[in-house]
TrEMBL record:
Pfam families per UniProt: Alpha_adaptin_C (PF02296), Alpha_adaptinC2 (PF02883)
Signal peptide (residue range): none
Annotated Gene3D superfamilies: 2.60.40.1230, TATA-Binding Protein (3.30.310.10)
Region (Disordered): 1-47, 270-307
Domain of life: Eukaryota
GO biological process: intracellular protein transport; vesicle-mediated transport
GO cellular component, one term: clathrin adaptor complex
Coiled coil ranges: 101-205
Name the record gives this protein: Clathrin adaptor alpha/beta/gamma-adaptin appendage Ig-like subdomain domain-containing protein
Amino acid sequence: DGSGLDAGQDYSVPPPPPPAAVDGHAGQSDGYFKGYGGAAAATDTGAQGLSNPELIDRISQLERQLARTAMGGMSAAPREGGYSGYFGAPPPLTRSMSADAEALEAGRASLQQRLEAAERELREDKEASRGHRLRAEQLELKLKDREQLLVHAKEMWMKENVRASRLADALTAAEDKLADQEKRLSEVSERYAEAQQEVRQLRHLLGTSGGDGAFGGGGAGDLAAGFGADPYAPNSRAKVPASNGFAKNHHNPATTGNLSQATWHTSDLDASRGGGFGVGDELPAMGSPSRAMPSSSPQMSQPLGLDGDTNADRFRRLCLLNDAVLYEDELLQVGVKSEYSGCEGQLAVFFGNKSTAALQAFTVQYFVREEHALRLVASPISQQLEADRQIVQRLAVTLLEPFVETPWLRLQFLLPDASPRRIQLKFPIMLPKFMAGRELSPQDFFRHWRQQSLVLNEVTSIVHLAERLRGPLVHVARSIVFGGALRLHHGVDTNPDNFVLVSQLAEPSGGRGLDQEAQDNLCLIRVEVGSGRFTGKARVVVRSSDHVAAKALVDCIVNQLAEPNAPHASGVSGAR
């Protein structure tokens, strides 16, 4: 094609070949076909590290290069069956080119074999991967089945766990209920034993008293030793009952019928200036709940009727009740309603004019002997009390410290004929009004009874029982509990004719600083009813952390048990 020839030179006669071309054609052939044989050799040696796609691309490149080489050799031959010019004779390097072509063909065949082997391996690998994929899918299906089974098992476990929790809760509730039932059964058993003891005590109280002619089985020395019996002997007494007095189901019906008469009825008087004195007239509350002592309580009823009551009987009744008539004559009627809470008390005093004429210059005065112990403040009232009318006066009392003497009430007024009249009587404010009953076990009772601070403050008194109390002992018991201010304890004293009571004094607002051992302000009382040659007598023993409180309690109990103006012997056992 004339490539590489100069257009201005005549090449009709080919120049002789260079000597080096004839003699060293092999080296020239090697250098001339360096790109073929060398490439083929390099391809053959470098194909070991090629991948299958790269190997296929390399084979294609070599085939195209081989085709171009063959076409280049053919272009040098004459077109009309001969050679002309430089290409007139066959090229001297055809053998080398054929050897290179054969080598390339052998390499191609080898690569083709390797390619087929690689394809076979690829097909085998594909088959193996397909098998592995199928196996993986089967394993995934099995895994999903196992997961579903696990979820189902977990749900079942949760349900069983909830059911087990419910069963455990039900079992716990049943055990708690069983424990409560056992506790209630134990309490019922204890209460049954207490009720039996109380019934026996009631039967003894309601029956006639008899004995060996002694005061409760022991003297004063026996009292200090624990009532003449071992208080700590096992099973020697029943547990102290929770009630203060007697069982509610064992009233004496004959004594409860007169209770309605204890309240002061003023149906014949018109209400004015403060209203009537009756059940519906209530005093305002004073903060904390007060200790109510209703007049209808069976523990505070009197064994005798009220038709022939004297003013002394009315005073004793007001020591036990919170509302009743204090004084009554042909002209005047005085009633009291009271409410106590701790050291405070509120009272309403009603004055009713029973006459047909007005009472002029009506004045009311209260005298407190121990002003350092009791504060009394009275509201002013009108100095004229009209006929068939009633006025009310409000009182406020405050306990500062224990006191003995009760206040006095003095009434002064002018009769219709202008003659003066004065009435003076005891006013029912005493120390038990500021006390509350307390429950103690027999062991605690005797432990306090033997305390030195209480022994030193012991006060005793021997009294002749009133005629109204010489029957069943229940009348004595009702007269000394003071509406619950003193709590009666059964089973503490082995002698059923004796009464053991416990009370606690409210902390005075101006307290006198009691010692540390007597912070409870306890008052322990024992009333021994005589029998035999001592029938009709009783001995009252009080031990307290405060000597004044013990003296006041003895006086209050003696006032309830003794006949009015009857002599009685008092004494102090402890050193003062």
